[in-house]
Every structure is written in structure tokens, then in C-alpha cells.
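Q: Please design a sequence for this.
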């Protein structure tokens, strides 16, 4: 195990001064009482701050909404799982026999949590700059290759956020009809905001396209209603 921990430290680019931190970061609660959940809690916050700092530097002209969406993508479980696999965490995790037999070393949630715990351990061992440098090594290539314009908010997300900001329930979508033959159908979808008694229709070559179109029409209507003399204010 010591040899594998040495190799892991080489891969992540951090040599621990506090020898107990890395083994603890790699210990699942099924293995024993000295597990990684507290380090995971800490690492989650450190990761969010480090990614925020890197995005702030990389995308100087971008607004809060764009930066928030990119950060959410980078720190979600799927992204953390991918990075954990790249640095070889499955080979060094400490799991109970039952958890190991059940495939725990490959489970996305366990690996994502362990990666956050490692980041938390680096923070405790070397401070924020060491942790930020680690996050830069782990995510820097992805951040450098990110086109923030490709993370524009889609209409369904924008509508949901508009309603939630006003403490209104989220919209509902239902297929109201289809046209054409099976291989070339056009879907018709209604977007409803029951709290406001509003419905807008959309259509598209897929259900998703139709929902986005209906949502776009709804958000256009709602934004117009926010202006003086808007249809919902007159």
C-alpha cells in the first residue's frame, strides 16, 4: 500500500508531510471509523473555491451566471468520477470486503467523494495554494479548453430559474400532439405555468426541441409581463 500511495502522490503532484492524511482520505466509511467523510466535506468547499478562482482568472469577461454554470459542470459527480479514474484512485481505496466485492472501487459516488477528500487532505497539509495548484493540475486542461459561450442557459433552465426566483412552482410540459410519419415526426408540446394560468405551445423534431421552444415562448411572455404595461400588468 505504501508503494501505491507513493505513486499516487507522484501522479497528483503533492508529497504529504502529514503521513496520516492521505490514507484517511482514501478510507471509505465501510472500512473503519477513521474514514474520509470529514475530509470530503472540507474538500468539497475547497474544490468549489479553487475552481471558482481558476474560472475567474480564465474568463475575465464572463458574468456570474456563465461562471456558475461552468463550475457546476466541473464539480459534478460525473466530472469528479472521471478525474478520480485518471489519477488511479480505484487501486488505492480502502473498502470493506463486502463493498469491494460489490464493485465499490468503481462506483462513481465513492470515487467522487474520495477525490474531494484528497483535495481536503492537501488543503490541510499544504494550505489553499497547494490545494488550488492540485485542482489546476486536475482540471486545468478542461478549463483551458472550455468555450464558455457553449454553456449558454437553455430556455427550460432560464424559465425554471425565473419562476423559482419569484417563489413560483416549476412549469409542467406535456405532449399535445404529433404530426408526420414515425421516422419524421413533429412533436407539439404545451408548457404550463399553473400558478399564473399560462400556457405556451412549442414544436420541434424531438420532444426536447418542442419543450425548449415552448419554454422560450413562455419566458418571452413572462419577461414582457415584467415591463410596465406588460400583458400581465395591464
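A: Design:
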Amino acid at each position: 500500500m505504501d508503494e501505491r500511495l507513493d505513486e499516487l502522490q507522484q501522479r497528483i503532484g503533492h508529497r504529504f508531510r502529514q503521513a496520516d492524511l492521505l490514507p484517511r482520505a482514501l478510507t471509505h466509511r465501510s472500512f473503519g471509523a477513521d474514514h474520509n467523510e470529514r475530509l470530503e466535506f472540507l474538500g468539497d468547499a475547497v474544490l468549489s473555491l479553487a475552481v471558482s478562482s481558476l474560472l475567474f482568472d480564465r474568463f475575465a469577461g464572463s458574468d456570474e451566471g456563465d461562471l456558475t454554470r461552468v463550475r457546476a459542470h466541473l464539480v459534478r459527480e460525473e466530472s469528479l468520477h472521471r478525474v478520480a479514474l485518471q489519477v488511479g484512485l480505484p487501486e488505492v481505496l480502502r473498502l470493506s470486503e463486502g463493498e469491494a466485492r460489490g464493485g465499490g472501487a468503481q462506483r462513481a459516488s465513492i470515487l467522487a467523494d474520495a477525490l474531494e477528500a484528497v483535495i481536503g487532505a492537501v488543503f490541510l497539509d499544504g494550505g489553499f495554494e497547494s490545494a488550488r495548484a492540485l485542482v489546476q493540475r486536475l482540471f486545468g486542461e478542461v478549463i483551458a479548453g472550455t468555450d464558455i459561450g457553449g454553456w449558454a442557459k437553455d430556455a427550460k433552465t432560464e424559465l425554471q430559474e425565473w419562476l423559482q426566483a419569484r417563489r413560483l412552482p416549476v412549469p409542467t410540459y406535456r405532449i399535445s400532439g404529433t404530426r408526420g410519419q414515425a421516422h419524421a415526426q413533429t412533436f407539439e408540446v404545451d408548457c404550463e405555468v399553473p400558478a399564473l394560468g399560462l400556457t405556451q405551445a412549442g414544436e420541434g423534431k424531438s420532444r426536447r426541441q418542442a419543450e425548449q421552444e415552448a419554454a422560450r415562448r413562455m419566458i418571452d411572455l413572462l419577461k414582457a409581463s415584467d415591463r410596465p404595461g406588460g400583458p400581465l400588468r395591464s
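Q: Thanks. Anything notable?
A: The mean pLDDT is 90. The chain has two domains: 2-150, 155-226.
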